[in-house]
Amino acid sequence: MTPLPVGSVIGILGDGQLGRMLASEAARLGFDVVVFGQDEDSPARRVASHSIVAEYTDRDALAELSVRCDLITLEFENVPVEALQILEDMGATVCPGQTSLKICQDRHLEKSFSREAGVMTADYHVVNSVDDAVVAFEALGGNGILKTRRDGYDGHGQRRLKPEDSPVQAFEDLREAPCVFEALVPFAGEMSVIVARRADGEMATFEPAENIHKNGILHISRAPSRYAEETKQAAIGAAKKLAEALGHVGVMACEFFVLESGEILLNEIAPRVHNSGHWTPEACITGQFEQHIRAIAGWPLGSTDRLMDVEMENLLGDDVMTAYGSAGPGDMITLYGKREMRAGRKMGHIVKRL
Ligand code: ATP
Ligand code: MG
CATH code for 187-353? Predict the structure, then answer.
């Protein structure tokens, strides 16, 4: 495997905060970055050396990306698989590849893939029709979450149901999009593992983080977590197994529910750097963004050793206005440069040393 030479150009599909942080780290390692996204004024675009603003399946724009870049990656899992196919047909190398993207875009494929790989998930049913919604609802005793199979994020595209609710109404509310109805997991907590994998199969994982969600949005990630060593090892093993099964190249995140018994269930896989790994750049020798660039570039993976106990807190909406004033001198702040502030929108994060 030939490492990507210093000074090469890396393309990033997607232009949000993850792209911004990836682009900055790539630049720190001596690469030039081209950001490809749809927003004229995106967070990533404003730190990249070049950017292309276009639809993800715009062939001329993809051709420009392919010509400009030595290697292309992504920061957003809802990039159409077709875009990767077009780029590959043009001779471009894209990491991660189509399998990771295709599986992780669809909650049904993701769960069935995970189960086949030997990693358990919550019980669930596929819902394609009003009739399916009723059958699934009855099968799970009316306690569960109806989620669209595709395009969900930060709790959007979900309806939490109780036995007295109407599954038909919920399905209609979600515009009858293909869904899964997932059993409500009585979890004791949540955790995630960030794993990096190179094309030759070498892997490195970060220590599992303990995650706390608020209103379906990640609020806090903490390392070390309070979970038992066996639970942490099970999560690390599962994440590696899934990365291997996907043939994933780059960083990916696996989110787990932790049951009272210490057993884990996969919630979902993000085929990219992840919010629950935002503590790693400050707390570890190598952060997740650098590790992703190393993995796709075929560079040796960096040490994931953690140097301090930390808690990462997301700054949502107008939290960002007061972050500087309320943070202590030792608190480490990252802001995403988003122009428009909306309630619940991820505007930045703060890493606090514990
Ligand atoms: P993200 O943008 O973080 O990926 P999302 O919109 O894809 O979120 P999920 O990951 O499906 O949403 O769920 C968000 C949170 O909602 C979970 O972390 C968990 O706290 C809660 N949740 C989701 N599914 C279940 C479930 N089956 N049982 C219990 N809680 C759940
Ligand atoms: Mg999700």
Answer: 3.30.470.20
Give me ligand 2 centre to Cα 41, in Å.
25
* Residue 16 and residue 45 in contact, taking contact as beta carbons nearer than 8 Å: no
CATH number of 123-183: 3.30.1490.20
Between strands 32-37 and 50-53, the pairing is: parallel
Kindly state if the Cβ of 216 falls inside 6 Å of ligand 1: yes
Q: Rounded mean pLDDT of the chain?
A: 96
Q: Which atom of ligand 1 is nearest to the CA of 124?
A: 27
Could you read off the pLDDT of 142-164 as tens digits, one per residue? Answer: 999 999 999 987 778 999 999 99
The pLDDT of residue 186: 97
- Which of 111, 213, 255 to probe ligand 1 with, by most ligand atoms within 8 A of CB? 213
Using alpha carbons, select from 57, 50, 56, 63 the residue that is nearest to residue 23. Answer: 50
> Which atom of ligand 1 has the smallest separation from the CA of 147?
11
Domain ranges of the chain: 9-94, 123-183, 187-353
Residue nearest to atom 26 of ligand 1 (CA): 184
Distances (CA, A) of 66 to 63, 93, 111, 148, 299: 5, 9, 32, 32, 21
pTM for the model stands at: 0.96
Which tens digits make up the pLDDT trace of 215-245?
889 999 999 999 999 999 999 999 999 999 9
Cβ 337 under 6 angstroms from ligand 1: no
User: How do residues 242-273 score in pLDDT, each as one tens digit?
Assistant: 999 999 999 999 999 999 999 999 999 999 99
What's the confidence (pLDDT) of residue 300? 98
Regarding the beta carbon of 268 and ligand 1, being less than 6 Å apart is answered yes
Sign of CA dihedral 282, 19, 35, 294: positive
CB 110 within 8 A of CB 117: no
For the stretch 290-306, pLDDT in tens is: 999 999 999 999 999 99
Among residues 154, 15, 174, 148, the alpha carbon closest in space to that of 79 is found at: 15
Whether domain 9-94 has CATH 3.30.70.20? no
